[in-house]
Amino acid sequence: MTDQQEQQAEGHRLGVVGAGVMGTNISALALGHGVDVTLVDVDEEILTSARRTIRHKLKHAQLMGALPADRPRGTLTTTTSTADLAGSTTVIEAVVEIDEVKRKVLGEISAAVAPGTLLISNTSCIPVDEMAGWVARGDELVGVHFMNPSYLIKMVEVIRGTATSEATMAAVRALLDTLGREALVINDAPGFVINRLLHPLINRAAMLVQEGVATAETVDGLLEGCLGHSTGPLRTADLIGIDNLVDSLRVLHERTGDPECDPCELMLQKVRDGHHGRKTGRGFYNYHSATERHTR
Ligand SMILES: NC(=O)c1ccc[n+]([C@@H]2O[C@H](COP(=O)([O-])OP(=O)(O)OC[C@H]3O[C@@H](n4cnc5c(N)ncnc54)[C@H](O)[C@@H]3O)[C@@H](O)[C@H]2O)c1
């Protein structure tokens, strides 16, 4: 690592709100690139489990050669208080994909940080322009759709809202550069590019299983073998979390009216049964070990 990269990493103090699938992914990515992280969630039990998950992810990232070898790890602080974000240079919101929850959390973050703090939402589907109305300074808000696992997938989708300023775009580029990510910038829309394409595909794949056309293994096998998908849509669903997918599909359906985005009965049933995918040990597939649940 060059002196300049080390200084860059030292200059960032990252707040992450929401210690679930993506909050732990983003935290591991940042810590592994030498950035200090303050991770916020609603209770200590979630934060204890998140610390364990982040350790697994850092180990996995290192094994996969996905972290700079010569950069000292950042320090992780966990807390239940949004007020502890006060000294952050950037805060990334990664709470559940439910607009009332995001509205409340984004309002709290915005009140806790100083003007000039880069504010990022990792939302899957809620337009940035909607969220800009929920914060004090909409020009400082930008969408960054980190992928899962965040430390293995280099590309991120950056969503520029109508109000997002040039200074905010420069700040987000600097952060992503420190994190070793590549960005493609798009305009705002429900689901952006990735999830406007991916979520209806997953929903349709689940419908095929529901209708008895093929098993999950066969649907994924065909998409992998014939179309070159790396994991298949239903293994991807398990990785994302079926609860999150159902919430995201609802956001898309409400805003686009597209019937392909109305979550199918099989996914709704899996959520009711608590079979949310890797994070609960069962979704379309079963996951037995901690490594299977916490890593790719
Ligand atoms: N799962 C994925 O693969 C993926 C990928 C890209 C983007 N996203 C998006 O990232 C965001 C987070 O998704 P996830 O999969 O990590 O969800 P998750 O359900 O795994 O985690 C959400 C976390 O938010 C916490 N939370 C809820 N209310 C909170 C509050 N008031 N304050 C602090 N924390 C709170 C929950 O306790 C939970 O730990 C969502 O907007 C989702 O759509 C998810």
From TrEMBL:
Binding-site residues, NAD(+): G18, A19, G20, V21, M22, G23, D41, E97, K102, S124, N148, K279
Span of domain 3-hydroxyacyl-CoA dehydrogenase C-terminal: 191-287
Domain named 3-hydroxyacyl-CoA dehydrogenase NAD binding: residues: 14-188
GO biological process, one term: fatty acid metabolic process
A Pfam family: 3HCDH
Residues at the site labelled Important for catalytic activity: H145
GO molecular function terms attached to this record: NAD+ binding; oxidoreductase activity, acting on the CH-OH group of donors, NAD or NADP as acceptor
Keywords: NAD, Oxidoreductase
Pathway(s): Lipid metabolism; butanoate metabolism
Family: Belongs to the 3-hydroxyacyl-CoA dehydrogenase family.
Protein name in the entry: 3-hydroxyacyl-CoA dehydrogenase family protein
